User: Fold this.
Amino acid sequence: MNLQEFTSREGASLAAAGKIVASLERRLGGQTPTNLVVTGGSSPVQCYAQLAKADIAWRNVRLVLSDERWVPPDHPDSNEKLVRDTLLTGHAAQAGLLPFYDAAMSITERSEDFSREYAGFDTAACALLGMGDDGHFASLFPDAENLQVGLRPGSSIFCIPVNTTSSPYPRISLTLSALLKSDELVLLCFGDAKRDVLDKASRGEGNFPIAHLLRQSHVPATIFWAP
Ligand code: 6PG
Assistant:
């Protein structure tokens, strides 16, 4: 695994932001709209603040969430809210955002609808992901009954509903197959516990969903880690 270690979380966040900007600029050179997949959670907040300062053609970028808690966008735990508050600011305020939550649909209807829509998307410039201490990424949690659907490479299912004891809300998540429709993957995670999971997963130890992302060779993945 391509892991870059940093002495500070700020340093890792700045480096990850630089990698993402470079991936966007490669696609934006053609002036065609491009997607950037963005994660929820607490780890990306400094990275988002740095991205928002980048003076690039954000009007041609559409943010796509990697996953969402099935709550309205004004809920404090909404990933859409997190991204609107921390990334859709500064220069990046011009970017588009494709939300998951739709009060008019069930989570299953939205998953099926989004999966069909995602099938028509061009390859994203980049997918920024975090990871939990249990080795989940996006909302592909170890205890999800449909986890194997979510991890099946090459699947035409690009979005699934997820129930997990780790979350008080139902989740909706891109699948690994959807995330691999990206030019590159950036994984930003902090702390010794997550580093231990990464090391074990890279050795094939344990039952960590992240192992499926680390072992694939279709899309280059760079891990930015700090204590
Ligand atoms: C979410 C995220 C999730 C996150 C990990 C790590 O909805 O919570 O999409 O996959 O990346 O849970 O979260 P932290 O960055 O807060 O540790």
About this structure: The two ends are 18 Å apart (CA to CA). Residues 9-28 form the longest helix (20 residues). The beta strands are 2-5, 34-38, 61-65, 67-69, 96-98, 126-129, 159-162, 171-174, 185-190, 221-226. The first strand starts at residue 2 and ends at 5.
